[in-house]
Specification:
This is DUF386 domain-containing protein. This protein has helices at 19-28, 57-60, and strands spanning 2-5, 37-42, 45-53, 64-66, 70-78, 80-87, 94-99, 104-107, 113-118, 121-125, 129-135, 139-148. It is mostly beta strands. It is globular.
């Protein structure tokens, strides 16, 4: 897992062949003007934009998730978003087995730690990172870049 601000995005270009494409999009786009929906920006890179009310810790832990096929770059555009995190290797309570079509698996374990993002901050979740996003009050506008691993 990585937590940082968009001003440092160039530092991560070398971590994956499509990170440069993803971060260049994030730094060039008018993020506040983006409407809810899915945007395909390149082969293996898509953006999901949403603006929704924050959720309680309890409700987000029902979908304590991880992915096998994609790396998530989750960027807070507006609002204040808290997320839970735990290493996948330490998660033992499977709620639903891996869904290959939707690329997720859910656990009911409790996060080891919580952290918060505000506008312009992002987190990168790799397949070994189980995460519970969207914890907060009020509207949270965010963007998730799905970067296909292969």
């Amino acid at each position: 897992m990585i937590i940082d601000t968009l001003t440092n995005a160039e530092r991560y270009y070398g971590l994956h062949k499509n990170f440069k494409t993803a971060f260049e999009y994030l730094t060039a786009a008018n993020l506040l003007a983006l409407e809810n929906g899915v945007i395909d920006i390149a082969d293996g890179v898509k953006v999901i934009v949403s603006e929704d009310p924050g959720k309680t810790v309890e409700s987000t832990l029902q979908k304590f998730e991880c992915h096998n096929q994609n790396i998530d770059i989750q960027l807070c555009i507006r609002g204040h978003e808290t997320m839970g995190w735990k290493p996948r290797a330490d998660c033992k309570q499977v709620v639903s087995e891996y869904n290959d079509e939707k690329d997720f698996m859910f656990y009911s374990d409790k996060p080891d730690t919580y952290f918060s993002l505000k506008g312009g901050q992002f987190v990168v979740f790799f397949p070994e990172d189980v995460h519970a996003p969207m914890i907060g009050d009020g509207l949270i506008k965010k963007l998730v870049v799905k970067v296909r691993i292969n």
